[in-house]
Amino acid sequence: MICPFCRHDDSRVVDSRQVEDGTQIRRRRECPQCGSRFSTQETALLNIIKRSGATEPFSREKVVAGVRKACQGRPVNDDDLALLAQRVEESLRLTGQAEIEAQEVGMAILAPLRELDEVAYLRYASVYRNFNSLEDFEGEIALLRAVPSSSTDSSVTKNAISTAQKN
Ligand SMILES: [Zn+2]
Fold first, then answer.
1. Share of the chain above pLDDT 90, in %
2. CA-based, 20 to 30 A from 143: which of 30, 44, 75, 164?
3. How many CB atoms lie within 10 A of CB 100?
4. How far is the centre of ligand 1, averaged over its atoms, from the C-alpha of 22 (Å)?
């Protein structure tokens, strides 16, 4: 890496340590030309593209804040929510993309939230997917009954949707 002080085209790593549970690495570097020291940070990119077009780093806290309301009065504790946010982050990182649309984050929340608590899931889905009639709830509940939560991969869900629509 180029020295930010004298623009020398190389620098030496003098210290390297993991921070934030190993999701970031900080390196202390030294320029062999001018002797200046500086720090760099390496982190796997995961940015969220908001509806406005602006981007911001993915935040587990925001995922938790987003589902906490739906979990009010339900047997869901902070550890459950932290684990859910972790699973959402993992599934988003699995896509391999550095930038992800905000609505995809909402989609990624649905499956783990359903496994956590079906009532909280219904509440969240009703807001997130704009349920505006009893039929929307009935359709979703029929789906919940038709598809066990252990098999929430998209192909199974799609089959269940087409079955539900035929009936
Ligand atoms: Zn330098």
1. 63
2. 75
3. 18
4. 29
Indicate yes or no: pTM above 0.85. Answer: no
Question: How far apart are the C-alpha atoms of 11 and 92, rounded to whole Å?
Answer: 34
Averaged pLDDT, 130-147: 86
Please name which of 16, 10, 55 lies closest in space to residue 31, comparing C-alpha atoms: 10
Residue 17 C-alpha to ligand 1 middle, in angstroms? 22
Question: In whole angstroms, how large is the CA radius of gyration of the chain?
Answer: 22
Going from the Cα of 1 to the center of ligand 1, the distance in angstroms, rounded, reads 10
Angle 42-67-144 from CA coordinates, rounded to 5°: 115
Q: What percent of the chain is helix, strand and coil (3-state, nearest 5)?
A: 50, 20, 30
CA of 20 to the centre of ligand 1 (A): 29
State the residue for tokens 């940015």: 47
pLDDT band (50, 70, 90) for residue 131: confident
Expressed in angstroms and rounded, the spacing between residue 14 Cα and the centre of ligand 1 is 14
